[in-house]
Design a protein that fits this description.
Layout (H helix, E strand, L loop, with lengths): L6 H25 L5 H22 L9 H24 L2 H8 L2 H13 L5 H18 L8 H15 L4
Helix pairs in contact: 2-3, 3-7, 4-6, 5-7
């Protein structure tokens, strides 16, 4: 049976990944009061490198790309996003910081129109606006938690995940 026909394994991996993200963010929130966001980001990505390096060494073709400049841009955007997020964790609760990440699709939709000239119909805007309404419920923009640094982290995070992979 191929991996495409194992939905239970895929679901378990998804749950494990989400738990890993939550634990990583919880650890970052705990350490954010004592260490700088730059140091936290450095160790977070050093840990990720340790996990991925054996795979890359076994299959070097995984890191080859036809557009290295876009990959460098993606890395810089991801690093910026991580720094903004870790900085936000110093100032606001983890739940609010995480909820703000889910505002990213709204910014992608807006930037796709402005930067790429793409048009989206109601069938795409409606779920994005519903998701953003959920973010507003959690974040409560009237509070001090809704700031510029946190919103920039959302934009950078979504841009890093939307740049075309090779």
């Amino acid at each position: 049976m191929t991996s495409a026909h194992r939905p239970a394994a895929g679901g378990a991996l998804l749950v494990a990944a989400m738990a890993g993200f939550a634990l990583s963010d919880m650890g970052a929130k705990t350490l954010a009061t004592s260490f700088s966001p730059v140091l936290l980001a450095w160790f977070r990505y050093l840990g990720l490198l340790a996990m991925v390096l054996p795979l890359v060494l076994a299959r070097p073709a995984l890191v080859r790309t036809a557009q290295p400049r876009l990959q460098v841009l993606r890395v810089l955007a991801l690093a910026g996003s991580a720094l903004f997020f870790l900085h936000a964790l110093r100032r606001i609760p983890q739940a609010e910081a995480t909820a703000m990440v889910f505002a990213s699709p709204l910014f992608v939709m807006l930037l796709a129109r402005v930067v790429l000239g793409e048009r989206a119909g109601l069938q795409r805007w409606l779920p994005v606006l519903c998701g953003f309404a959920g973010v507003l419920v959690v974040v409560r923009p009237a509070t001090l938690a809704f700031g510029g640094a946190e919103m920039m982290a959302n934009v950078l995070l979504r841009l890093t995940s939307s740049v075309n992979r090779p």
